[in-house]
Amino acid sequence: MPNQSVPDRYGVVAQGLHWLIAGLIVAQFTLAWMADDLPLGMQKLAMLARHKSFGMTVLMLAILRLLWRVFHRAPNFPAGMSPIERVLARATHIVFYVLLFAMPLTGWMMSSAKNYSVSWFGRFTWPDLLAPNERAFEVLKTTHQTLSWLLLTIAILHILAAMKHHFWNKDDVLRRMLPFTKSEKRS
Ligand code: HEM
Ligand code: HEM
Fold first, then answer.
1. Ligand 2 cavity residues, CB under 6 Å
2. Ligand 2: centre distance to CA 25 (Å)
């Protein structure tokens, strides 16, 4: 049964997964954009191989995170948040969870459709999800790119919202997601 008591803060596992995945997403954009600027060659392929390994790591962590979230309630939103802010915050979080699966899965399917194998840091190879298909590759590549812009947009809005809570509203929303801090007042 899920634990129904409402905590004041995110727990150490939820915080750890949040910041680990956030770091990996930054690495994903950095690697993809750097690879984009390179001519086809060993360096570009090595960078994309790392992008794929990190991306598959995000997929595994996203499964863990979703399972953890199902069984552990998040803290309530601060009392002062307006209904529209609550809807926006919840919608952003749901879209994030969807993208944490959709980004790796479209990347994995795109690679399969192009007949490129997806390895995990050279340790093992993931099975192909699709048979080679140039048309499917093009559609999946466009989908992966478009979703990456959506992810970037909501990440910027999410960071701005966290800053607003911390510096403008002066509530506990940022602190309760940060390790090594205390939530001094109930928000
Ligand atoms: C959270 C996970 C991921 C994020 C945030 C992400 C993000 C991105 C971004 C921003 C690009 C550049 C798009 C552009 O050119 O505008 C890209 C390209 C690419 N991604 Fe990912 N990606 C993720 C996971 C994956 C995975 C798991 C794979 C494969 C297994 C993958 C394979 C690729 C490939 C092959 C490209 C280059 C496409 C091309 O231009 O030919 N990605 N990704
Ligand atoms: C792209 C990277 C990020 C992703 C994918 C992401 C995703 C999420 C998700 C899904 C939640 C909801 C957690 C839950 O209730 O299950 C969340 C909460 C939160 N995130 Fe992020 N996040 C990212 C980066 C950041 C950054 C850089 C900051 C700070 C500047 C931040 C601050 C927060 C805070 C303060 C919360 C708690 C919100 C609340 O208590 O309602 N996040 N994040």
1. 18, 21-22, 25, 69, 74-75, 77, 89, 93, 96-97, 155, 158-159, 162, 173-174, 176-177
2. 12
Convert the pLDDT of each residue in 69-122 to its tens digit: 999 999 999 998 999 999 999 999 999 999 999 999 999 999 999 999 999 999
pLDDT tens digits, one per residue of 38-73:
999 999 999 999 999 999 999 999 999 999 999 999
User: What pTM value is reported for the model?
Assistant: 0.94
Query: Which protein residue has the closest C-alpha to ligand 1 atom 34?
Result: 107
* CA-nearest residue, atom 24 of ligand 2: 22
Alpha carbon distance, N-terminus to C-terminus of the chain: 27
Domains of the chain: 12-76+84-177 (1.20.950)
Tell me which residue has tokens 């911390």.
Answer: 166
> Cα-Cα-Cα-Cα dihedral of 161, 164, 170, 173, to 10°?
10
Which two structure tokens, joined as six digits, stand for 72?
Answer: 């552990």
